[in-house]
Amino acid sequence: MANGEEGEPGSAKDRWLLRARPHLVLDGLARAAAVTGAARGVVYLSDPAAGESVRRALAEHPPPLPVEVVETDHTYVAGEETAVVRRIDGGPALPTAKPPRPFERGVGGAPTLVSNVETLARIALTAARPDLRDDIARSTLVTLSGGPVAPVLTEVPYGMALRALADRHGNPGAAGALMGGLFGGLVDADALDLPLEPEALTAAGTALGCGAIHFLAPGRCPVTTAADAAAHLTAESARQCGVCVSGTAAVGKALYGLTAGTAGPDTADDLDRWARGLRGRGACGLLDAAAGIAGSLLRSFPHLVRSHLAAPCPVCADAAPADGRHRLTVAVPEVAGAPARARLHRPSPSPSPSPAPRPLPALKGTP
Ligand code: SF4
To answer: N or C of the chain: less Cβ packing under 10 Å?
Structure first.
């Protein structure tokens, strides 16, 4: 199954691949099916333009196995692997308890490979260009947002410093970043010296996840960003697990209290307890993300938590929406056609010791 449903705010890579490189994804799906012995394939998505593009590609070059396009609503949890299976089986796109995972019991009760579309595209690209095998394996698509410039989708080599990415994206002086959509939590400005390497980021307590990185502009308060993230997760909870319903909402309420100057004296202790205790207790990663937002704020910006407990923050007050509700709104790049790829060639404004972003190689079957 080609999973092209990306629920993390700020991520656009899967939509772009399905819209602009559908043949590559379908080729990767066929190759994965050949290896696993699968008799059918599914492309799972929520973006209507991506669906059109995939259907057109299927008509142009019918793959060697039946491939169906299954659409879902765009939600935070719809792309979780068990939600994918449930939706393809005709149910709601909501996670189920694990085990079993789909590779054990998936669609129709059969073992099922649920693979992200970027992985499938890289399989196909490696088969088409074995001479680029190392480059393909050592690079990743990232969606960069935040600050004064428009979001951009780009492909970068692993090892590049986060700070170089921030500089190239027009965010010099970023105060930190929200990593992996919401899943990697917040990091401070010092962490921007980390290399874009999954292992290094995990060791530092964060994660690259879907590759969406939202840089924190110097004039924006990270506490507001944390509150917005938690409010988004609260609204997106599938409300299946009691601990998620109460835990995510509690994190969101506490963080909102910090931004509004109404937090009680136990707020930091509460957030710390939830950050440690909520992980792994929901059926999916949403509750983990909420715990991660709380824990990463405490870890990366402890002085701000203290100052928000001592007095209302004027920056947060300025950022507060009139209706009192915080919702995360990270715009995504325009992914129709080629603009995202064109941005890959944007030259660096200044020399950097980090490896330069690499353009996507020419792709087999590119429209
Ligand atoms: S953890 Fe939350 S979002 Fe995930 S399945 Fe349970 S209730 Fe739904």
So the answer is: C
